[in-house]
Amino acid sequence: MPRVRQRAFMSLQRLCIENVCQNMDEVWSKHFLDYFYKKSHCKFIIGPFDSIIPSLSQEIFVSLKERKQLRRHHIYLLISIYHKLLDFSGCEADLNLMLQITLERCYKLEQLNISRCMKIPRGILNNLISTVGGTLLKIEVSSSNIGDDFLSVVGVYCPNLRALDVSFTSVSDKGVRTLVLQENLDGSYDERYGKSTQIAAFKVQGCQKITDEGAALVLEKLTNLVIFDYCNTVGAVQLLLKEKNEPKLQLTFITCCNENTQDDDLCTNILVNRTAENVYITTFPTLSEVPFYSLLELEALKELHISNDMELNAIHFKNYCTPLLQRFGDTLTTLHLGQLEYISIQQIRDECTKLQELSLLWNLNYIEEENEPRYTYFPSLHTAKIFSVDIDLGTVRTKLSRLF
User: Fold this and answer.
1) How far apart are CA 153 and CA 178, in angstroms?
2) How far is CA 225 from CA 164, 196, 264, 398, in A?
C-alpha cells in the first residue's frame, strides 16, 4: 500500500543531540565521573566527543545550556582544542572554568559569545583575549559587567577583529579611544594600543557613556565600518564633518534622537551615507518634511522607524511617509510608526508588498481609503503590534478588523 509522505518533526541530527543530552550523565560522562572528576584539574582530555566535528559538540553544549542541564563536568568534555566558536551567553555558573579551559585549549578560537553574564571574571577574560586575540574575529559581550579595561585589551591584542558587540555595558569614550588610537586609558601615547581598526560591525546600543565625540572617532578611524547602532549617528556625523569635508561612510544605520538636531543635519547625514538601509528617527521640534524627501536618495530602505514625541506637533502620515512607501515599498521589511496621525493601513498594505513586521504604537488616529484596495491582506506579514490612544477601543478594533 502506498503511504502518505510525512514530514519529520525534527531532523535526525537534532534527534541524536536530544538523545545525547538525555543520557549525558548515565552514558557519555560516566567514565569521566567515575575515574577523573574532582580528583584533579584536567587540562586536556580525550573524551567521547573528540571524534565529532566541533560544531556538533557546540550544539550539544548549547542544548544542555538551554535545558538548564549543563554541569561542571560537561565543560571538561565538550570544549576541545578544535573549537573556533564558543557560546557561553547567559552562563553565570562555572563561567570561570569555561574561560579557563578555553584559555588552555582553544588556540584557534575565532568567535566568543559571553553576553548576558554579569559575573565575568575580568582577569581570566583579559588573559584569554591576550592569548587568542590574534585569531579572534568576533566578540559578543553585551549586557555584561565589562568596562573600558576590556576594550583596552582588545585594542592591544585583536588586530583582526571584524565584529564587536558591547551593547548595554559601561564602556565609555575612554575605552573607545584605546580601541582605535595609540592611547592608553590614562590618555597617554602608547603604540601598543589602537590595533582593532578592521572592525566592520560595532554594536554600542544602550552604552550611555559613549557620546557623539566618541562615536565620531569611531566613524573616522574604522574605515570598514558597516554596522554601527549608536543612538545618534546624525550628531556624530556633524562632528566628523568639522574634521573632514567629505567623509566616506558605508553604514547601514541612520539614527537620530537629539532634540537639538536641525533639518540640515539629518539631510547631510543622509547624503554622505546613501548605503543606509535602516533608519531610526525620533522627532525634534523643528522637523519638517524636507529630511524625509532626502531619504528618497537612499539606495534601498529595509527598516523605517519613526517615533514622535507627544509634546511635539503630530506628524501627518500622508505628508511624511507616503513618498517613502511609494519609493521603497518593494524593499521595506520592517515599519514602526509611533504617535503619528491619519495613518492609512490600506496604503501601507498596498505599497509594502514585502513587509514582514509592522508596529503601530500609540498613534492618534487611522483613516480608511475610499479607493479600491490592491490587496485584501498583507502578502508577507509575520508580526503586527498595535496599541492605540483612542479612548473608544471598540471603534479602533472595528476599524482595524476591516483593514487587516
Assistant:
1) 8
2) 11, 12, 24, 47
Residues 118 and 73 in one domain: no
pLDDT at residue 300 is higher than 70: yes
**253-279 burial string, b = 16+ CB within 10 Å, else e?**
bbbbbbeebbbebbbbbbeebeebbbb
The 3-state DSSP class for residue 396 equals helix
| Residues 111, 72 share a domain | no
Give whole-number Cα distances, 164 to 100, 129, 197, 402, in Å.
21, 13, 11, 45
Q: Cell for 178?
A: 584605546
Q: Could you tell me the pTM of the whole model?
A: 0.86
Q: How far apart are CA 138 and CA 45, in angstroms?
A: 27
**What's the half-sphere exposure (Cβ side, CA atoms, 13 Å) at 175?**
18
Inter-residue contact 253 to 228 (CB < 8 Å): yes
What residues make up the domain containing 58?
11-80
Cell numbers found for residue 391: 479612548
CA atoms within 13 A on the CB side of 166: 26
Q: Choose the final residue of a domain: 220, 243, 258.
A: 220
d(CA 53, CA 31): 21
Name 282's Cβ contacts closer than 8 Å, sequence gap at least 6.
256, 257, 307, 309
Nearby residues of 117 by Cβ (< 8 Å), 6 or more positions away: 88, 89, 90, 91, 92, 95, 141, 144, 145
Eight-class DSSP state of 80: -
Q: What is the C-alpha separation between 42 and 352, in angstroms, rounded?
A: 58
Single-letter code of the amino acid located at 30: K
Are 208 and 116 part of one and the same domain?
yes
Task: Give dist(CA 22, CA 69) in Å, integer.
Answer: 9
pLDDT in tens, 204-242: 999 999 999 999 999 999 999 999 999 999 999 988 888
How many separate domains does the chain show? 2
